[in-house]
Design a protein that fits this description.
- With 270 residues, the protein is of the alpha/beta class.
- It is built from nine helices and seven strands.
- A seven-stranded parallel sheet has the order 3-2-1-4-5-6-7, sandwiched between helices.
- The chain starts with 8 loop residues before the first strand and ends in a 7-residue tail after the last strand.
Length: 270
C-alpha cells in the first residue's frame, strides 16, 4: 500500500467489474476506504473478495442503480453513516450501445443518456451535498475521448460524454468556493478490457456489426484500425486511467478543477 490517499473515503460507481473494479482495487492500495457501488451484486462480492487481503483498509459494497435518485441518496447516506465523510467520488457507471444513427433504437439511445448523463448528475448532486458541508472533496468523472470528438455509429455515447464535460466544468465553477473540485478523465480505447473483448457484447463485435470501420471483415481488423490511430501504438490500460485518477484525487492537484484530461497515448490532445 503506497498510502498516497491514506484514510480517505472513496465511492466508486460501476465499481464491480472492468475499469471500476481496477479503480476500487487501486484506491485501496493507495490507502482509501472504498465503497463499491454497482447494480451487479455478484460483481460487488467478487470485487470485495479481490481486495479483502489489503491490510488496514475497509471495503464495502452497496447495490445502487445510478438512475434512481433514492438509491443514490441512500448510497451517500450509508457511506457517511459508515465512515463519517466522503472524500473522493468516482463516477464510472456507464453503458455503450453502438448503432448507426438511421437504424438506432430510440429506447436504447434513451437508456444510454439515462445512465451516462442523468446518472452522473444524480451522483454529483448527492456528492456535492455531502462535500459542501465538509468544505472539501474531489469528484472525478470517468469520461471518454468520445467526449471531445464525435464517434460514428456511436451518437448516444458521444452525446453523453460531451454533456458530461459541460457538467464537469459547471460543477467545478459552482463548488470551487466550497473547496470541492470536479475533474474528468477521458481515456482512450481500453482494447484489452472486457468492454472491448467480450465475444457477445464487446465493442469489437458491436463495431463490426455496426460497420464502424470501413472494410473491416473481422474483429482483428477492428483492433488494428484502433491501434493504428494511436501515436503510441497501443491501447489504454487500467493503470493509465488509475494513475490519472490518483493524481486528481490527491492534494497534488489541489489547484486543478474543471479539467477533462485526455489519457489517449496522443490520439486526442486537447
Amino acid at each position: 500500500m503506497s498510502g498516497n490517499l491514506a484514510d480517505k473515503v472513496a465511492i466508486v460507481t460501476g465499481g464491480a467489474q472492468g475499469l471500476g473494479r481496477a479503480i476500487s482495487q487501486r484506491l485501496v492500495r493507495e490507502g482509501c476506504n472504498v465503497v463499491v457501488a454497482d447494480v451487479n451484486q455478484l460483481g460487488i462480492a467478487e470485487t470485495l473478495a479481490s481486495i479483502a487481503a489489503e491490510p488496514g483498509r475497509r471495503a464495502i459494497g452497496m447495490k445502487v442503480d445510478v438512475t434512481q435518485e433514492a438509491e443514490v441518496e441512500a448510497l451517500f447516506a450509508g457511506t457517511v453513516r459508515e465512515f463519517g465523510r466522503v472524500d473522493i467520488v468516482v463516477s464510472n457507471a456507464a453503458i455503450l450501445i453502438a448503432e448507426p444513427i438511421a437504424e438506432a433504437d430510440a429506447e436504447k439511445w434513451r437508456a444510454v443518456m439515462n445512465v451516462n448523463l442523468f446518472g452522473y448528475f444524480l451522483v454529483t448532486k448527492h456528492a456535492c451535498r455531502v462535500m459542501k458541508r465538509q468544505k472539501s472533496g474531489s469528484i472525478v468523472n470517468i469520461n471518454s475521448k468520445s467526449g471531445k470528438k464525435g464517434s460514428a455509429a456511436n451518437s448516444a455515447y458521444a452525446a453523453t460524454k460531451f454533456g458530461s464535460i459541460g457538467h464537469t466544468q459547471s460543477v467545478a465553477l459552482e463548488m470551487a468556493p466550497f473547496g470541492v473540485r470536479c475533474n474528468a478523465i477521458c481515456p482512450g480505447n481500453l482494447l484489452d478490457s472486457p468492454l472491448w473483448t467480450d465475444p457477445e457484447t464487446g465493442l469489437f463485435v458491436q463495431y463490426l456489426r455496426a460497420g464502424k470501420v470501413a472494410g473491416a471483415g473481422n474483429v482483428d481488423d477492428i483492433r488494428k484500425a484502433y491501434v493504428d490511430m494511436v501515436p503510441m501504438k497501443r491501447g489504454c490500460t487500467y493503470d493509465d486511467v488509475c494513475n490519472a485518477l490518483v493524481f486528481f484525487a490527491s492534494d497534488q492537484s489541489s489547484y486543478i478543477t474543471g479539467i477533462s484530461l485526455s489519457v489517449t497515448g496522443g490520439q486526442e490532445m486537447n
